[in-house]
Amino acid sequence: MKAKNCLIFGGSGQIGLNLIRKLTKNNYRVTVVTRNIHQKSYKIKTQGNAGYIDIIEANIFDEKKIRNLFKEADICINLIGILFEKKGGNTFKNIHSVLPSLLAKLCKEYNLTHFIHLSALGINDSIDSDYAKSKLEGETNVLKNFPLTTILRPSIVYSVDDNFTTNFMTLLNRLPVFPLYYKGKTKFAPIHCSDLTDTIYHIVSKNIYSKIIECVGPEVISLKQILEKLQILISKKRILLPFPLPIAKLTATLFEILPNPLLTRDQLRLLKYDNVKSGKYKTNSDIGIPSVRFFDQEVKKYSYMWREGGQFSTDKYLSENNLKNKTDSKF
Description:
Elements: E1 5-9, H1 14-25, E2 29-34, H2 37-45, E3 53-57, H3 63-70, E4 75-78, H4 92-109, E5 114-118, H5 130-145, E6 149-154, E7 157-158, H6 165-174, E8 177-180, E9 187-188, E10 191-192, H7 193-205, E11 212-215, E12 221-222, H8 223-233, E13 239-242, H9 245-255, H10 265-270, E14 282-283, H11 295-300, H12 315-329
Parallel strand pairs: 1-2, 1-4, 2-3, 4-5, 5-6, 6-11, 7-10, 8-13, 11-14
Antiparallel strand pairs: 9-12
Helix pairs in contact: 1-7, 4-5
């Protein structure tokens, strides 16, 4: 039986690399499109056995070049997304609306069996966010151009390779005071990267067609609770200081000057809204793949990198030292 070919856009991020491993392990061939093959290929190539991964360098808006890739593909998966806009065409509209619309049209033109598009949770309510509006527009265009689309709306995705827990732990490690926006009351349902890719693989392998699926973790946690948990995991105690909204807006405006801002005004607007399941759509649990990884347990596996002592502060070394001390005390 001929192995199915999955065409992946956005395969070099935390979700993409995890998904490539899962797909190739289960005998799917993968074609990954990247804008910089010299920078990204070494990571991508190591995710599967030789012969299962093809890496193509292309501008994602070069329709002529990416069109040829659809001729050999059975399934297309779009994982590309941005949290803030940059110069050179990296706008919310281009990345979240124009690109998915183009990919959906090509899926229809070349009769692909499935198109899986990664969107975001909570965008229906975030009516004043440019990020959310571009995501919603992209979903509408995708479903219009290719009805055989499954849209995934994950909450915050975390893992050792994320820019969420790792950035927070870096800041908590360095700053004596950490700002809280909206008093830290915003709720999230963090989903581990492996739970999300388990869901994607299940959809691919079982040919599940459902227009929108919300992907959430097994627990709902507020932003303040997340920060408190991370402090415990890295053995730090910091002051969590609620910022008044005018000051928060000012700091976000200043951060936007940086190449990779810690916070933008648009992200600040997003933080007004909870990032949890809406109850209006199916969830990953409803399709038979409930999330099984809990936030504390998973982050603990890599949080040692932000603790004093590094790897020697883990349970493994602490238990060995305790055993040694007990043995020495007998003599």
